[in-house]
């Protein structure tokens, strides 16, 4: 039952899932690192990205337009959420921030459930990525391969934003010392809004890119959210490289364990998280500053 | 208010529970709904102790709810265990044990990390229940056939079957749960819980092992969850697997926030609102699946605008209506001249652990602290004798506060050694050092801002009277020996007796400063470090505080950092001058005052410039 092709294909699955988790977690972690708010509605953002793309696909039949529409919609939703609600919670205790984002997440899920019902929806992969690719030693669904590439490009774009732009510099500085950035005369609130938008967009983009792999249901974001937490704890809160490393580790653990028994996937993931917490409480690549 | 009458809350709860079956049916509540509300309420009692009182927001309570429920249900359905109450208690113990193990991991981190870890752990339990353990738990089918309790009293058998009959059993369980929770909240441990919620840093610094207390709160919450989980199985005659879902944890959190956190009854109120709205929206308004959206919106609005939930809102309203007059009464009282008050007898420091020791009370050698390339303190040798009053001065950035932080073991030195009363304390924790009799008052106030002055001092005094960790969960706060005396005495010393029951948030700045000193003082330290006790005070307050410091100096060694040289030199016997992380000079105030190097350090060579 465990054969080499099987293992390799699971490793590929792990890579695809890991890349996806890395992207979603990066969004979560830069929001937390910059704003100090853990967005429990992040899973819902992922889910809404999928649905927004689904709607766009219904009208346009174009996968690319669906991806763009899905990402943009979630970005706007993130910006609106920050402006209207999150903004008032920066100076309130962490618990309140958790409660309000948790509540918003539930509202989002229920709105989608109301509109689209609980039935699953399908977004087909774009024509050029349909079918199966022969990798020489095994056959693998083409779109899953493409997901790895697409997500890698998105992560690269995020990297450029974070490490090669003025905004990115402010964000990274803010993660290390937000008080200092504030006192440098930078309008942190505008930065916060943009960061929230970008972070949400990362989740939304992942949501629509992932939609052809799984079918869409309103609850799809819940599991992802939990996995994202594990990724962030493993990688270290506020660390972009940590999110990528943690994402890949988590993806491989889930996939490889699933090959033996899917029921243990979470147990192994949890074991890895515990190990990291015991050995390196701040995560593999975490900064000590934030708590 | 309510607290002054003993057993008032208990009595009201009992009356409420007895009256409920006669009133609620007329309001459209089915007995089954009421029973479910009580199970949620019981579940929430423990959660509120964890979240509302200790400030730890867990999104993973379903793990313990499910564990307790399935252990009890398994015993009753598959293992042939006949005693329902016994099974419930075993389930509760299993959940508490699980809570202990999980707590060891989850409590390694605080804040949002803690929340994330609890979510992840709960998810693991869900998957374990469904898959590896499905032989025991029935997987997605759950465990049907959970019996209801019956008690053989010899002459008759009481059997609680369903509806209002089962209500009696569940209501009794809830009532006992309330009594236990109230005892815990009113115990010394309960006081420390709220200290942890308010300011974990200071709770640690006054000498409480907060990790132990957090774990205690976590286990208590797990035990309540486990028992409630068992009751759920009994109530439904079936243990549903969705007890383990994230939704269960989420619903508990939301109900608690809706009802009001930190009130114990919040979860019950929240569950009532939740289940009532669910029924009402679904059937009466025909909203179908949209009921949860409505509840979600209600929840978000409450978190945004009514932080205390429904009970908190009602309490605010009550205070607004009745409290106005009361407050103006107290404010009308003339502000008696503080200088008039008679200085109370000085407070005794802790008894010396080993009276035979006669060397310097504190001796630091080669103390160095580096932050990367920055050297905050370098090679400081420092020694203070028993009973001495020592001042430390130095320009800003001289490393005075870093030096203090190393002495109290808040931060570990890069190298060097600290010896307190002949005992090497280098590398100990701040809690242990405080328990040994060395503590400090902070430069920036570190108070328990949500509590009253008296509660603040109580927390500090408890650390000294009870040690760093003790599980006297059912002891009344008032029965802790010596507590009242110590608190009253400290109140008198720092001249806050009249403000004893004022919340810290309402104190004036000078009063907060005095309370800051009082917190350190209430732990009865033999060596007290004061980091800029006069900072930000008006001249009159300074005079007052210097007097206070003099009065507490008797029988105690003190080291004081301050920039107010006139006051400091009046107070202390010797002064150590720090500059750029090193000891510049050491001498009597007179020597320091006239020393050229000190003037240079403070004025930065201005003399030279003027001359040039």
From TrEMBL, chain A:
The chain crosses the membrane at residues 12-33, 40-57, 63-86, 98-116, 143-163, 188-209, 229-251, 263-283. Pfam families: BPD_transp_2. GO terms for cellular component: plasma membrane. Its main location: membrane. Signal peptide: none annotated. GO terms for biological process: amino acid transport. InterPro entries: ABC_transp_permease, BCAA_transport_permease. Belongs to the binding-protein-dependent transport system permease family. LivHM subfamily. This is Branched-chain amino acid transport system permease protein. It comes from Bradyrhizobium shewense. The lineage of its organism: Bacteria, Pseudomonadati, Pseudomonadota, Alphaproteobacteria, Hyphomicrobiales.
């Amino acid at each position: 039952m465990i054969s080499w092709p099987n293992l390799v294909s699971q490793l590929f699955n792990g890579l695809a899932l890991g890349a996806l988790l890395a992207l979603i977690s990066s969004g979560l972690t830069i929001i937390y690192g910059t704003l100090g708010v853990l967005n429990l509605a992040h899973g819902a953002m992922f889910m809404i990205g999928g649905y927004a793309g689904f709607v766009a696909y219904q009208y346009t039949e174009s996968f690319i337009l669906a991806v763009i529409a899905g990402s943009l919609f979630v970005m706007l939703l993130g910006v609106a959420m920050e402006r209207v609600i999150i903004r008032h919670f920066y100076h309130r205790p962490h618990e309140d921030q958790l409660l309000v984002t948790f509540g918003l997440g539930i509202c989002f899920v229920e709105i989608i459930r109301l509109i689209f019902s609980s039935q699953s929806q399908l977004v087909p992969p774009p024509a050029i990525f349909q079918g199966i690719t022969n990798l020489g030693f095994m056959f693998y669904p083409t779109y899953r391969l493409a997901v790895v590439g697409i997500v890698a490009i998105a992560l690269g774009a995020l990297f450029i934003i974070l490490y090669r732009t003025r905004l990115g510099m402010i964000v990274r500085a803010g993660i290390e010392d937000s008080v200092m950035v504030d006192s440098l005369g930078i309008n942190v609130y505008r930065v916060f809004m943009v960061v929230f938008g970008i972070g949400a967009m990362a989740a939304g983009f992942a949501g629509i890119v992932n939609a052809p792999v799984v079918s869409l249901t309103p609850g799809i974001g819940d599991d992802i959210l939990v996995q994202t937490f594990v990724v962030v704890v493993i990688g270290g809160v506020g660390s972009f490289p940590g999110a990528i490393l943690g994402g890949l580790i988590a993806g491989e653990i889930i996939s490889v364990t699933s090959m033996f028994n899917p029921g243990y996937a979470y147990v192994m993931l949890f074991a890895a998280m515990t190990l990291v917490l015991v050995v390196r409480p701040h995560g593999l690549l975490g900064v000590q500053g934030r708590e | 208010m309510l607290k002054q009458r003993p057993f008032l809350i208990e009595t009201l709860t009992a009356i409420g529970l007895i009256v409920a079956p006669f009133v609620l049916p007329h309001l459209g509540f089915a007995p089954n709904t009421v029973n479910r509300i009580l199970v949620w309420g019981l579940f929430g009692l423990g959660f509120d102790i964890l979240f509302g009182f200790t400030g730890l927001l867990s999104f993973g309570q379903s793990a313990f709810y499910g564990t307790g429920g399935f252990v009890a249900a398994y015993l009753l359905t598959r293992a042939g265990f006949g005693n329902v109450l016994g099974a419930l208690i075993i389930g509760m113990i299993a959940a508490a044990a699980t809570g202990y193990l999980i707590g060891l991991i989850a409590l390694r981190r605080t804040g949002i990390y803690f929340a994330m870890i609890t979510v992840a752990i709960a998810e693991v339990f869900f998957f374990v229940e469904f898959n590896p353990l499905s032989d025991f738990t029935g997987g997605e089918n759950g465990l049907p056939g959970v019996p209801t309790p019956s008690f053989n009293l010899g002459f008759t058998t009481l059997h609680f079957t369903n509806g209002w009959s089962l209500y009696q059993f569940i209501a009794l369980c809830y009532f006992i749960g309330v009594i236990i929770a109230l005892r815990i909240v009113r115990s010394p441990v309960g006081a420390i819980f709220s200290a942890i919620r308010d300011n974990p840093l200071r709770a640690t610094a006054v000498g409480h092992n907060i990790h132990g207390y957090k774990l205690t709160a976590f286990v208590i919450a797990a035990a309540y969850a486990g028992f409630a989980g068992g009751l759920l199985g009994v109530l439904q005659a079936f243990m549903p697997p969705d007890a383990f879902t994230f939704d269960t944890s989420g619903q508990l959190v939301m109900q608690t926030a809706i009802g009001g956190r930190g009130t114990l009854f919040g979860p019950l109120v929240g569950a009532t609102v939740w289940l009532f709205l669910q029924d009402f929206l679904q059937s009466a308004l025909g909203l179908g699946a949209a009921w949860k959206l409505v509840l979600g919106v209600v929840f978000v609005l409450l978190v945004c605008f009514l932080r205390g939930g429904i009970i908190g809102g009602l309490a605010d309203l009550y205070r607004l209506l009745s409290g106005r007059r009361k407050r103006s009464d107290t404010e009308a009282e003339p502000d008696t001249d503080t200088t008039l008050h008679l200085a109370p007898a000085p407070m005794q420091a802790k008894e010396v652990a080993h009276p035979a020791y006669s060397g310097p009370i504190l001796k630091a050698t080669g103390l160095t602290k580096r932050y990367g390339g920055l050297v905050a303190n370098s090679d400081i040798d420092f020694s203070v004798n028993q009973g001495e009053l020592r001042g430390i001065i130095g320009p800003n950035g001289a490393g005075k506060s870093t030096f203090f932080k190393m002495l109290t073991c808040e931060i570990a030195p890069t190298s060097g050694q600290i010896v307190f009363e002949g005992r090497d304390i280098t590398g100990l924790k701040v809690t242990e050092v405080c328990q040994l009799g060395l503590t400090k008052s902070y430069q920036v106030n570190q108070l328990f801002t949500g509590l009253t002055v008296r509660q603040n001092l109580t927390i500090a005094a408890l650390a000294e009277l009870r040690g760093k960790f003790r599980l006297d969960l059912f002891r009344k706060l008032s029965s802790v020996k010596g507590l009242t005396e110590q608190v009253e005495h400290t109140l008198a010393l720092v001249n806050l007796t009249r403000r004893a029951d004022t919340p810290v948030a309402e104190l004036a700045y000078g009063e907060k400063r005095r309370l800051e000193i009082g917190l350190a003082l209430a732990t009865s330290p033999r060596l007290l470090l004061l980091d800029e006790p006069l900072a930000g005070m008006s001249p009159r307050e300074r005079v007052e505080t210097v007097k206070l410091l003099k009065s507490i100096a008797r029988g105690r060694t003190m080291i004081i950092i301050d920039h107010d040289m006139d006051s400091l030199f009046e107070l202390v016997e010797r002064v150590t001058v720090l500059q750029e992380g090193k000891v510049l000079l050491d001498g009597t105030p007179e020597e320091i005052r006239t020393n050229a190097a000190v003037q240079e350090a403070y004025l930065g060579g201005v003399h030279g410039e003027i001359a040039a």
